[in-house]
Design a protein that fits this description.
Elements lengths: L10 H13 L5 H7 L12 H13 L3 H13 L6 H12 L4 H18 L4 H13 L3 H14 L4 H13 L4 H11 L6 H15 L2 H18 L4 H12 L6 H14 L1
Helix pairs in contact: 3-4, 3-5, 5-6, 5-7, 6-7, 7-8, 8-9, 9-10, 9-11, 10-11, 11-12, 12-14, 13-14
Length: 260
């Protein structure tokens, strides 16, 4: 909260970073370099957790070659399976673009929860991501209801739940009601972005959409002041969904200009 008035503060990326550091060890560059070197010996002091942590690092970098190389080395280690290995592999396959990989990922997450319990939010969210990609929306919403009860102050969970409402187009009313009833004054641009999409897609209400878009844009400038890719993608999204409304297009043009 003390950082919110800082012009360089990026709300979404900072929440993600803090969550990551609370859950996992910081990637150790020296160990990662040693693990990925051709001379790396299986008899070295590097452990299964070191390898799994490096695999997580390359998963987020989308570096399949190094991930697969480390996975091969991991299979030859004799120190036993690390529980985080299941989560890392699950997220790797959850982010692929075909259902067989999503099913494979779901198996890793379900195995983790069965063997180690259901208190690891990363495993739960991974399983939900698989269900989302397979469009099993009702199952997802039931699960979100339970984990939000346990993590009610974790804002990204609420955002992901609303995104599921939007993905399942019959739930626009639920998305709108969920945001307006719980987060009427939320200082998060993603909520206003979702509200504007509801206004445009379901209601055709350009006046309310423009109000929410202006709120979104003000917060975006405050919390993401150096993110031109975000401005560009957002401007492109709403220019294609506003049915050529002049006022919305003018704001989209402002976003693109800011991105440039």
């Amino acid at each position: 909260e003390p950082l919110q008035d800082d012009p360089d503060f990026k709300y979404s990326s900072t929440v993600a970073l803090l969550t990551y550091h609370n859950m996992y060890a910081t990637p150790d560059t020296a160990k990662i370099n040693k693990l990925t070197s051709d001379e790396m010996s299986l008899e070295s002091s590097l452990t299964v957790p070191d390898t799994v942590n490096a695999m997580r690092f390359f998963t987020y970098l989308h570096d399949d070659e190094k991930f697969n190389d480390l996975n091969e080395k991991l299979s030859m280690m004799e120190q036993g399976e690390d529980s985080e290995e299941l989560i890392v592999k699950g997220w790797k396959y959850a982010m692929e673009n075909d259902e067989p990989n999503w099913t494979r990922a779901q198996g890793y997450f379900e195995r983790y929860i069965k063997e180690y319990g259901n208190e690891n939010i990363d495993a739960i969210l991974g399983g939900l991501k698989c269900l989302e990609r397979m469009k099993k929306f009702e199952t997802i919403l039931d699960t979100y209801q339970e984990i939000i009860k346990m993590n009610s102050n974790f804002m990204p969970l609420h955002i992901e739940r609303v995104k599921i409402y939007i993905s399942n187009k019959s739930n626009y009313d639920n998305a709108n009601d969920y945001i307006t009833s719980r987060f009427a004054n939320a200082q998060n641009y993603e909520f206003y972005e979702i509200l504007a999409l509801c206004n445009l897609f379901q209601d055709g209400d350009f006046k309310t959409a423009l109000y929410n878009l202006n709120k979104m844009w003000d917060l975006m400038l405050k919390t993401e002041p150096k993110n031109p890719e975000l401005y560009y993608q957002t401007g492109k999204l709403f220019s294609r969904t506003c049915d050529r409304n002049k006022d919305v297009l003018t704001l989209c043009e402002t976003m693109i200009d800011k991105a440039i």
